[in-house]
Amino acid sequence: MSVIKIDRLTKMYGKSRGVSDISFEVEEGEIFGFIGPNGAGKSTTIRTLLGLIHPTSGGATIFGKDITTAGPEIAEDIGYLPSEVFYYDNMKVIDLLNYSASFYKKDCSQRIKELAELLDLDLKRKIEDLSLGNKKKVGIIQGLLHEPKLLILDEPTSGLDPLMQQKFFNLLRQENEKGVTILFSSHILSEVQRLCDRVAIIKDGEIVQVERISVLKEKNHKSFKIEPKGELDLETFNLPGVTDLKWEHHAIRFLYQGDINTMMKKIAQVEIANVWIEEPDLEEIFMHYYEKEA
Ligand SMILES: Nc1ncnc2c1ncn2[C@@H]1O[C@H](COP(=O)(O)OP(=O)(O)OP(=O)(O)O)[C@@H](O)[C@H]1O
């Protein structure tokens, strides 16, 4: 079942484009990455889903309900972490969290304690005394305290140190194992690669691809590094499907998309000292993808 179904959604800000004609679905139980460079339209999509802004055309459903007509009802089962968090500084953390919890029809006090312990956050401190990272933790707890069925996270890791990021990712995995669906927006490819099952790539307000991370890595390119014995012309490997062909120290490097047997036969024709065939990381794939599409 689709938890989020976006159907031909367009959002214009006056004459300028927020997102245009985007469609994709997030299935129940998925950790779904939403990735693209700054200004691509991730926050616009998320804010539309949450009913904070209204679509210009097209629309979306969450849990099968229309975002424009059933917003408050849907919101009860969503946890949202905005990319930037703003608070009334002179409140204590616990008071703020209790206030957030008061919007839900359940007792969240135990969950608040558990999460604060896990994230190592002192509930008695005043918000104004907190570092950026600790403020972010308050946002994370706010998003999770009512045990939502869907988590929508907009660039959630900014401001968290690597150790806390790791804890946060573990927490997300635990939530996901309990059945929580997660939409995770980011411009950092490595974190999407670590966490997500599938990903939608957005560029200039349009979805350019929706794919499993594993397929993206397999289908796209292999990274080759070949160290020849003696001299070899770089042009030897200038074959269909080869890109980014270059010398790197004593080795020839390139990305290859195509039948692996063709490439292995070609390599067998030359004298080599060593060969490395690797999956490129997502960064390489995306850079290549963006350049190709540009
Ligand atoms: N309130 C607004 N008024 C006018 N234009 C806006 C507004 N909010 C966003 N935009 C424009 O819409 C486009 C998409 O922006 P959006 O913030 O959704 O991108 P993003 O992918 O979330 O990027 P970032 O990570 O930088 O927030 C950009 O061109 C941006 O300038």
Question: Strand sequence of the main sheet, in spatial order?
Answer: 6-7-8-3-9-10
Question: What composes the largest sheet?
Answer: 6 strands, mixed
CATH class of the largest domain: Alpha Beta
CATH topology of the largest domain: Rossmann fold
Model regions low in confidence, pLDDT < 50 over at least 5 residues: none
Protein name: ABC transporter
Domain ABC transporter: 4-229
GO molecular function, one term: ATP binding
Keywords: ATP-binding, Nucleotide-binding, Transport
Describe, in plain words, how this protein is organized in 3D.
This protein is an alpha/beta fold. The protein has two domains: 216 residues, P-loop containing nucleotide triphosphate hydrolases (Rossmann fold, 3-Layer(aba) Sandwich), CATH 3.40.50.300; 72 residues, Alpha-Beta Plaits (2-Layer Sandwich). The chain is built from ten helices and 14 strands. The strands form three sheets. The protein has a six-stranded mixed β-sheet, with helices on both faces. A four-stranded antiparallel β-sheet has the order 2-1-4-5, covered by helices on one side. A four-stranded antiparallel β-sheet has the order 12-13-11-14. A hairpin with a 2-residue loop joins strand 12 and strand 13. Helix 4 runs antiparallel to helix 5. The radius of gyration is 23 Å and the shape is elongated. 31% of the residues are buried. The mean pLDDT is 90. It binds adenosine-5'-triphosphate. Pfam families: ABC_tran. GO terms for molecular function: ATP binding; ATP hydrolysis activity. InterPro entries: AAA+_ATPase, ABC_transporter-like_ATP-bd, ABC_transporter-like_CS, ABC_transporter_ATP-binding, P-loop_NTPase. Belongs to the ABC transporter superfamily. Keywords: ATP-binding, Nucleotide-binding, Transport.
